[in-house]
Amino acid sequence: MGIVLALFFFLLYYSIFSLGLSIGEGGGMPPVIGLWSGNILFAFAGVIGLRMTAKERTPSLASLLRHALFRRKKALPGGNSR
Known about the structure:
Shape: extended
Distance between the termini: 44 Å
Mean pLDDT: 84
Order of helices and strands: HHH
Number of helices: 3
Helix content: over 70%
Number of strands: 0
Structural class: mainly alpha
Largest sheet: none
Strand content: under 5%
Low-confidence stretches: none
């Protein structure tokens, strides 16, 4: 399972890197930001993972999605604002 997960993250990183490179070369954003976008995203994910590890929690995709949808619904006009 570890090899599959490592391969998935490598392909994800490489895709983000390639996308940032092509957008940077095409003029959609400065090339420096395009090249560093994958590193910044993965550093952010690493910090979140370290914080969760320090709190001895495991990431739960269902709870993260539920939390994000609740916050979005609350922010919409006419949402439940207690």
